Amino acid sequence: MAALRILVCVKRVPAPGAQITLTNDQRAVDARNLAFTTSPHEECAVEEAIRLVEEHGGEITVLTVGPPEAEEQLRFAISVGAHHAILVTNDTIADGEDPDPQATACAIVEAVRSLEADAGGFDLLLFGNESADSGGFQVGIRVAHAFGRPIVNGIKAIEVADGALTARRECDAGFEVYRLTLPAVLGVKEGINLPRYPTLPGRLRSKKAEIGTIAASPATGGLTMVRFETPVVEVSETVVLGTGADAAGAVVDLLSELGLV
């Protein structure tokens, strides 16, 4: 079959496990002391694109809607094997406003139309199943609907042959198997593979790579930011009732208090 053209959409998110603090107006994350990374599902989507191109040939474009700092995540994708990188942004996004799923999808659709008009259509658009921060589950579906292309989320295996794609998704009974004609859109789930680490030549290549920029249209409609809320941290305490036979009385008292004896 012909070589594949794959677009992978990624998002810059706070590193997993980071302590999240908010700005004083509770409308944004205070990023001064935060480390950022690519959303984990999307890391796996990048890796899966690399494996498909290694098998079938072709090229990978990685795209993000975000602030200028998101170049870090684009360059990381190049360091592990992506060929091209596109940053979709505008002044509002650059000022720290995180567009909602509707605005994000619209920006991606505009960017993809521009890229496909210039260099031909993409055979496959890959998204993470959901982003690690907002977890909206919507962007890939909205993009697929805008292009009239088939989409399946929660994908744990991908095979391409004879101009068609076979994808597997876990279910209670084992796996659901989908066969899609190309071009298609998939939402990849973490665990489909183990993402590779960048090599030294890859890191050097990523530093020299040119990052393309596309202006995102201002968002209209969709969700309106009111404020963020941080959940109350629940602290659990462990009490040692005693050791050996001396703990028996305390254990009986506790079981009685819980109504179990």
Mean pLDDT: 88
Order of helices and strands: EEEHEHEHHEHEEEEHEH
Gyration radius from CA atoms, angstroms: 23 Å
User: How many domains would you count in the coordinates?
Assistant: 1
CATH class type? Alpha Beta
Sheet of most strands: 9 strands, mixed
Low-confidence stretches: none
How are the strands of the biggest sheet laid out side by side? Answer: 9-8-7-10-6-1-4-5-11
CATH superfamily (homologous) name: HUPs
Per DSSP E runs of 2 or more residues, the count of β-strands stands at 11
Distance between the termini: 69 Å
Q: Treating each run of at least 4 consecutive H or I residues as one helix, how many helices? A: 7
Tell me the fraction of residues in β-strands, as a range: 25-35%
Q: Based on the structure given, which CATH architecture is correct?
A: 3-Layer(aba) Sandwich
For this structure, the CATH topology is Rossmann fold
Helical content class: 25-40%
How does the overall form come out from the CA principal axes?
Answer: globular
- Which structural class fits the helix and strand makeup? alpha/beta
Write a structural description:
The protein has helices at 40-56, 71-80, 91-94, 101-119, 139-147, 200-208, 248-257, and strands at residues 4-10, 12-14, 36-38, 58-65, 84-89, 124-128, 151-161, 164-171, 174-181, 184-188, 211-215. It is of the alpha/beta class and 261 residues long. The strands form two sheets. The protein has a nine-stranded mixed sheet, sandwiched between helices. Strands 2-3 form a two-stranded antiparallel sheet. It is globular. It is built from seven helices and eleven strands. It has a single domain (4-236), classed as HUPs (Rossmann fold), CATH 3.40.50. Helix 2 (71-80) packs across helix 6 and helix 4 (101-119) crosses helix 5 (139-147).
